[in-house]
User: What shape does this take?
Amino acid sequence: MDTELAKDIKEAVLEVLNNSDMDSTTEFQVRKSASDLIGIDLNEPSRKKFVRNIVQNYLEERQAKADADVNNTISNNNEEEAEPEEEESEDEKNNNNNNKTKGAQEFDDEGDLIICRLSDKRRVTLTEFRGKSLVSIREYYKRDGKELPSSKGISLTPEQWANFSKNVPAIEKAIKKLEGRMN
Assistant: This one.
């Protein structure tokens, strides 16, 4: 993608983001509105990934600003003298640096956010399909150096994911009970 096109896309996406209700707007809606603004299809995988990165950076900057505002408010309201912070040990510094590296967001070739890798061939991704967000737990295979999703797996809507995650403690309890019978 040439730099002029990238600049146009970024400006359009930021304009849409700045004029959107961030509590209800989806990435798909942002991409669609930005597409309409500049007259270019942004659903092509490399453009979709580019837009996702712009949205992610925007949200991270917005969160950092909100955190800074909260911290400033707290420090302005706090009249007590703050205790000096303890210095981190080398081990803590190394662990924090590793966590930052591990916490860096990873996207696949289609621009979908990889939440975690369960194994070499299985992963959990956050994806969009026909304008709907889905949590996918899927097996992948390699072809021509690319990791591609197989048909083995499941995709859940946010509502289905919420229902599943709410029931995880019951699932864990049933697994422990079953394991207890087997021992």
